[in-house]
């Protein structure tokens, strides 16, 4: 197959874009680590998963660009893409992902409050009268217990 300069430039630009995608995938894993505070074992597993995704991504972009023909400019394109991503976009994307996470957590907490509020009302509707009647019914027993122990007649003999 004849590879023209135009095809090589196309392959290079596709791999640069692939480098951007690899940087984005890494930012997702970085934010996931930061948010969930993964322990060392899970962090190692996440690294393996990242490299699997990274490898699949690289192979996909190399397949799109030049049918997985391994060329130096392909790896150079990935490296330049990752570097450009970190210089230009990484900070903003990381902040956006953290913001999305925090918004999602706040939203889910608010939804849980909205869902739990009617349940609390129903539970209180049944528990408050139960506690009140239990207190009323136990008052005579507590009164007798406290007052009858003062008389020596009702004390147990040892």
From TrEMBL:
Domain of life: Bacteria
Positions of transmembrane segments: 12-29, 41-64, 70-93, 114-132
Keywords: Membrane, Transmembrane, Transmembrane helix
Protein's UniProt keywords contain Chloroplast: no
Protein name as annotated: Spore cortex biosynthesis protein YabQ
UniProt source species: Thermoanaerobacter pseudethanolicus (strain ATCC 33223 / 39E)
């Amino acid at each position: 197959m004849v590879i023209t300069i135009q095809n090589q430039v196309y392959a290079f630009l596709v791999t640069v874009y692939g480098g951007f995608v690899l940087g984005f995938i890494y930012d997702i894993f970085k934010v996931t680590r930061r948010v969930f505070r993964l322990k060392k074992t899970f962090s190692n597993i996440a690294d393996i998963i990242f490299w699997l995704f990274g490898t699949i991504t690289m192979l996909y972009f190399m397949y799109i660009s030049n049918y997985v023909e391994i060329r130096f400019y392909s790896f150079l394109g990935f490296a330049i893409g990752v570097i450009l991503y970190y210089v230009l976009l990484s900070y903003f994307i990381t902040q956006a992902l953290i913001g999305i996470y925090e918004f999602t957590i706040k939203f889910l907490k608010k939804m849980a409050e909205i869902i739990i509020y009617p349940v609390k009302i129903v539970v209180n509707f049944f528990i408050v009268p139960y506690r009140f009647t239990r207190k009323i019914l136990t008052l005579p027993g507590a009164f007798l217990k406290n007052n009858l122990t003062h008389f020596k007649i009702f004390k147990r003999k040892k």
